[in-house]
Description:
The chain is mainly alpha-helical and 232 residues long. 61% of the residues lie in helices and 2% in strands. The chain contains 8 helices and 2 strands. It has a two-stranded antiparallel sheet with strand order 1-2.
Amino acid sequence: MGATPPDPPPPQPVVPAWRRRTRGEVRWPVLVAIGVAIALQVSLPDDLTPQPRYLLPAVEALLLMVLLVLNPRHIVRASGPLRIAGLILIALVSLGNGVAAAQLVDLLVTGGLGQTGGGLLWAGASVFLTNILVFALWYWELDRGGPAMRASGDRQFPDFLFPQMATPHIANPHWEPRFADYLYLSSTNAATWGPADTLPLTRWAKLIMLLQSAISLVTVALVVARAVNILG
C-alpha cells in the first residue's frame, strides 16, 4: 500500500481589513456631507448665524474646494497639510453650528426668536442635522488617527468598537469602517442620546459622544416645546 498523504495544512485565519493595510476609502462622501452642512448653515435665519453672514460659509467652501482639488480620490497616505486643512474645515463647520445652537437656545429661552412654528422647526432641524454631520466628521477624522492611518493598518486599537469588530466570525473579512458607519453612529447617538450598537472605548470618544448627546437633547427639547406652544 502507498503512503498515506499528509493532512492538508489548517487554513490560515484571515486578518480582517480594519487590522491590515488597505486601499483606503474615497473622499467624496465626506465632501458631500460637508457641502450639505454648509448649505444647512446658509439656510438659517440671520439671528442664528455668525456675522458677516456669508463669511464663514465662504471660508468653508474654499477649504472644501482645496481638499477636492488636492485629494479627490482615495485617502491612502497621511499628509500633514491636508489633515490640518481637513481638521480646520470641520472645526469651522462645528463653530458655525455651535454658534447657531447657542443662539437658538438663548432666543428660545428669552423669547426673542420671531419665528412661526414651521420656521422654528426648520431652524431646529437644520441645527440638529448639522450636529449629526459635524460629529460624524469628527468621529471619522479622529478614530485611530484618521482615515489615512486606518488604511495603513498601523493602529490596532480602535476608539470605537463596531459590531463587525466584536463578531469577526460573522462579518465580511474585507469590512472596515467607512464614513457611512460613522454617520450612522452619529445619527443613533443624536437620536437616542446614547450608543446603539457601536461602543466608545477611549475616554475622548466617550466625552465627545456625551457632548453630542447633550447638544441634541437640549436642541430637541427646547425647539419642540416652543414649536408646540406656538402651534397650539
